[in-house]
Amino acid sequence: MRETSFKKIAVKSWDEVLDYWIFVSTLVLTLTLALYFIRYFLLLALNLFHGEWLIFFSIVFLLIEVVLVIFAIECIILCSILLHEKKRISILDVIQDSYEKYYRFLPTILLFIVVSAVSLILFVIPAFFVVPKYSLSLVICLRESNDPVRALKRSAKLTRGNFPASFWVVITSAILFLVIRIPIVGWLFGVFFAVPFIANTLVLLYYELKKTYV
Q1: How far is it, in rounded angstroms, from Cα 164 to Cα 141?
Q2: Residue (of 19, 21, 3) closest to 194 by Cα position
């Protein structure tokens, strides 16, 4: 079994991001601005409540924001999948397709987060193995399985024997997310380069490993 090179995937991912840069960055920017506006209006709405109602609606609005952030993540990953498959799409196509597949993505990413969090809480080192092992489930649930558990198992099977590549994808993503935290410059870098690159690299890794395990 041949080992997949992270360097080769990263270079190819960067080239593809540049090829579709205008479309992908426009999608990411649209989703980001939409999330900021929604958050702004939710915060304004909180001013209408006091006491126990304030606590209740703070929790409700937080859940709404989490659901929307997950939907934005799904849109970006699905966009990379469709572009990789050379399909002609518009931003509305991506959003509509993501909406139709949200019932798959939501439970899968929540299960992925829970498994990753448990491994991190119990012991830091296992998290460095668990997260790369199951990271492809976020792509698999959109292209193969509706079942979150099967998506995680499939991810574990694909990354078996190719741990270095999946490991460096996760580490690179973590580093880029830290850079995004830098005010203004980090935000611009994240919207126009880092986020599209992370999503596309994950998708390319999936398709590359799929050649080994059909």
Answers
A1: 22
A2: 21
The residues spanned by each domain of the chain are 6-210
Are 203 and 137 in contact, with CB atoms under 8 Å apart? no
* Among 61, 10, 22, 62, CA closest to 167: 10
With 0.85 as the threshold, say if the pTM is over it.
yes
Both tokens of 131, joined, read 């997260």
Tokens for 35, please give them. 């999330």
Q: Between helices 52-84 and 91-122, what is the axis angle to 10°? A: 110
Gap between the Cα atoms of 77 and 176, Å rounded: 16
Tens digits of pLDDT across the chain (214 residues) = 455 778 888 888 888 888 888 898 899 989 989 989 988 888 888 888 887 888 888 888 889 989 999 999 999 999 999 988 888 889 999 999 999 999 999 999 999 999 988 887 777 666 678 888 999 999 999 998 778 999 999 999 998 878 888 888 888 888 888 888 888 788 888 888 888 999 999 999 999 888 876 5
What is the enclosing helix (H) or strand (E) of 76?
helix 52-84
DSSP state at residue 214: -
Q: Residue 149 and residue 102: Cα distance in Å, rounded?
A: 16
